[in-house]
Amino acid sequence: MAGEERNLTNRDDSRPVRVKVDNVKKIYNGRNGEMVALNGVTLDIHDNEFICVVGPSGCGKSTLLNIIAGLLEPTSGAVYCDGKEVKGTGTDRGVVFHQYVLFPWLTVKKIPVTKIEQMAGCLL
Prior knowledge:
Layout: E1 6-8, E2 17-30, E3 33-46, H1 61-69, E4 76-81, E5 84-85, H2 110-120
Parallel strand pairs: 1-3
Antiparallel strand pairs: 2-3, 2-4, 4-5
């Protein structure tokens, strides 16, 4: 995605746009200067539409998803969910991370019980 600008909008679709990525750029400043992760990505995701973001390692897939989730801010451009600009995380969006981030030593059955115990502050 960091190459040429791409416009992936379908202006003829009458379905509501749920997620709009509008000319999003993300540039990181590193030891060797600027590194362009996203270069003008424009994308509309319509109601009941399923999309896949594919590409080689390091092309900006996770960066784009993290911007949509509100975990990163774009250098320029904007992202909208149901017409509202994404400014940080929100309950209208969810994220599944690449790595295990919660209790990797517990089974799926035990995780909810552990969370309830933590929230209640007692042992069941």
